Amino acid sequence: MTLALILQFTRQDLVDRYAGSLLGGLWTFIQPLVNMLVFILVFSQLMGARLPAFSGSGRFSYSIYLVAGLLGWIAFASTLTRTTTVFIDKAHLITKVRLSLWWLPLFVVLSDSIIFLISAGFFLGFLLLIEHPITARFLWIPLIFVVQQSFAYALGLVLAILGVFLRDIRELVTVVLQLWFWLTPIVYVFSIIPEALQPRMQLNPMFPVIDAYHSVVLFNAHPQPLGLIVLVVLTALLFALGRWLFVRLERDIRDLI
Amino acid sequence: MIEAIGLTKTFKLYRSPSDRLLESLLRKPRHRRYIALDEVSFAVEPGETLGILGRNGAGKSTLLKLLMGVLLPDRGELRLSGKLTGLLELGTGFDTSLTGLQNIERNGRLLGMSGQEIADRRAEIIAFSELGDYIGEPLRTYSSGMTMRLAFAIAIHADPACFLVDEALSVGDAHFQQKCIRRIKQFRDQGGSLIFVSHDLNAVKVLCDRAIVLERGRVVAAGTPDAAVNAYNRIIADLDEDAPLQASVDEAVGGYGNRALELIGGELCGEVSGADLVSAGEPVSVCLRIKAQQRIEDFTLGILIRDRFGQDVFGTNSYFLGQPLTASAGERLTVELCFPMNLAPGKYTLTAALHSAHNHLQDCYHWCDNLLRFEVAGIIGPVFYGIARLEPRMRVYPGGHGPQPPSEDETRAISA
Q1: Chain A residues within 8 A (CB-CB) of chain B?
Q2: Cβ pair B387, B352 in contact under 8 A
Q3: Statement: B248-379 belongs to CATH 2.70.50.60
Q4: What pTM, to 2 d.p., does this model score?
Q5: In this prediction, does ipTM exceed 0.85?
């Protein structure tokens, strides 16, 4: 399985699905743009939400907080959901052509990452527009993002392998992601959580990721390294588990699909 | 070059997919085992064609999937030199909303072509597919024949070292089929290895250098195509022993058609034996009973005799025989056909049909496949070989000359 083939799957995922429509690949940009506008306008203008911890950018502060965390989360959630079902979704190809099941899900990661890049581009444009400070600390963002997507890929692979045998996993992931979203401080601020609960909330593997985005974008600070390092280790363990399962189960996966 | 050494593939049958997971992880058996392939070995040299014969369920598909790498064997080894492309994946990944050109890119990549290769062969592919300007149109506007032509054109230009050909070769019209076969032969002449899987025994004999026969996952015969075809025939004949003879039917429940006319029964009877077991050369009478639901003018009754391979042996109908048939509403008719059963001993089926005009494409009233089953056993008259008795006359001419055209004198005498 070549890189070219993975890139082709990515392309199909992003562009070809709009084949025959007038705007074609432009739709890939329209969706994130509209998302962004809704978050920013609804939460700044209509709801007029303010973030007490941060007042630098005035009325847009909550919008910035929300979008900074949400963009990363959307990429993560989408990658995880779609990786989990990738073998079943692509069964019509897997049963016909020799494809590496181990590398196949990479196209999902790439495709969601590109959508993230587009969204992040719009977001940066917006930050420039309202003259929000953009500093060298923003260079942390790609790194945080790579950590996050690797985690999604590793976890997704494990779930994808198991999901071939237990179709319930697909539904389970959807439900769990919903809960997971609300257990992660994206919409709300971490400080409103009762202090007794805070240490437990930090056990959430996505907490350091979202927290890192907030630190960089809103507070112009370096991210907390410890949580991210733990996440990298966890990701490595998940890859090892995935590999172990894959070697044992690849034959059965192919039989069953 | 393709080399398979002791390929074994079993499928485990589970009550539920989760049982399979539990077993894989806990190593405690929770399945019934089904052996699809058992120690299958063969080799195909460059430039050689191997035929694979076998009944449905004998393991052909499993073997092809192992060869293509979409299934993994339990045991055994598979050595391939270079890329293997099969016609099984014909048109894989085609997207009907994309144009022919875009689909060349898409399908070509899946078949393992690089971007450069696709660019180099694009013109050839388009020319071979004979799609012309349609290549820029979305695939959904193509007829199924056009789609298959494009798919085949891409597959054959993917430059594999080994090529798997199966029934999918029956794409398009006769002209395109012949072109495909020419191209496949060319591929073989250039040193490509070919594996040909088919029920078409004749094609196997014509195209293959060697053939193997699969039965219940095992190679039960391997050798020349002729020997393999014979072995395959034996296997099929065994199967047919199970089907009961049925030379008389009172109720033709099966079949298809609009039933404006219905076959309600029929029988085949030997005039000497008076029974359904007839001898070769014996005059037989086939009686078919028809019931008309409405008045039908000028319909046709046809029969078709097939041998145990399903090969059409002989067919005729009332149109060919110059016997117009008409029935009024509610009328019952019995039509008798008498002929000497000049067929070799063996088991046969008789298919009967009622339709309009001289073919069944306009109006098919009732078509009954294998309405009757009968057996020819023993030979009346001179013994013969082969499937049909042609009843030659034999003359002996003394001297060195056989029968000659009439001399000029005789010709003149005739014309005068």
Answers
A1: 2, 4-5, 8, 12, 16, 19-20, 92-98, 162, 164-167, 248-252, 254-256
A2: no
A3: yes
A4: 0.70
A5: no
